[in-house]
Amino acid sequence: MSELKDQIDLQKLPRHIAVIMDGNGRWAKAHGKPRVFGHKNGVKSVREITEAAAELGVEYLTLYAFSTENWSRPKLEVNALMHLLIQTVRNELKTLNDNSIRLNAIGDLTKLPEKTYKVLMEGIENTKTNNRMTLNLALNYSSRWEILNAVKKMASDIKQDVLDPKAIDESCFESYLTTKGIPDPELLIRTSGEQRISNYLLWQIAYSELYFTNVYWPDFRKDNFYKAILDYQSRERRFGKTSEQL
Ligand code: IPE
Ligand code: IPE
Ligand code: MG
User: Fold this and answer.
1) Is 130 exposed, middle or buried (0-12, 13-18, 19+ CB in 10 A)?
2) Phi, psi (5° rounding) for residue 180?
3) Furthest-apart CA atoms within the chain: distance in Å
């Protein structure tokens, strides 16, 4: 039994943890291997962290797997990532179902290669009745795209008289985002030492606790994840109030 895991206060567990899985390429380079080797090893971390989150009782785990900006990478790498996604969804389907984990995806999914889209949709369909945890993959995701898309849909609904501009409040706006129905992440983790958001969940992380670690994603294991949660639990979330008011 892991000692770190035992220190976690299950009453104060984040319901939603978002992760920017970063550092696969640098990890591969450090091992004298091509970048794709890093991505393949990153899948092992995805498996571990998904398992750790589900075991603890986290309800939503959102992993940044591919950003809209990532299309600018060399074609070989992009193709390898899309192929890896197909393989991973197929290989993990049984484990997801055995553990009652529901697969979901956010992003501009229709722009994914046909095969990738198809396998992803099959995975989502085949796990839709699972209710222990939702594994949410951000794929071809960009927060500015998401926000603009919401605005466009709202404008169109207003034009068609199904939305009253006066009714637009935070919860109405959220219902137009791809994360509709999912609570905001209490904790955002980014690996690899970079301290930026890279167009991820801009609206949703308004009050998230940010946790950065130098560990590259393929080295990120359960204990690293527990450490992030313990760090989160040591913080005072004031939401604008004073310490005394809490
Ligand atoms: C994260 O690792 C995975 C994806 C963005 C798909 P990177 O591939 O960004 O690795 P680094 O940042 O180049 O080391
Ligand atoms: C962010 O990582 C996107 C994903 C983890 C999928 P990047 O490596 O693409 O981000 P930048 O380029 O360092 O901002
Ligand atoms: Mg990176």
Assistant:
1) middle
2) -45, 130
3) 59
> If you measure from the C-alpha of residue 102 to the centroid of ligand 1, how many angstroms do you get, rounded to a whole number?
25
Mean pLDDT throughout 32-52?
A: 98
Tell whether 246 is covered by a domain.
Answer: no
pLDDT 10s digits, 128-179: 999 999 999 999 999 999 999 999 999 999 999 999 999 999 999 999 999 9
Among 20, 53, 35, 17, which Cα is nearest to 191's? 20
Residue 133 resides in a domain: yes
Closest protein CA for atom 2 of ligand 2: 22
Closest ligand to Cα 67: 2
Count structural domains, the chain. Answer: 1
CATH number for the domain that contains residue 87: 3.40.1180.10
Task: Choose, from 6, 9, 22, 161, the residue flagged as catalytic.
Answer: 22
pTM of the model as a whole: 0.98
Indicate whether 102 belongs to any domain.
Answer: yes
Tell me what percent of the chain is helix, strand and coil, each rounded to the nearest 5: 50, 15, 35
Q: Which ligand is nearest to the CA of 190?
A: 2
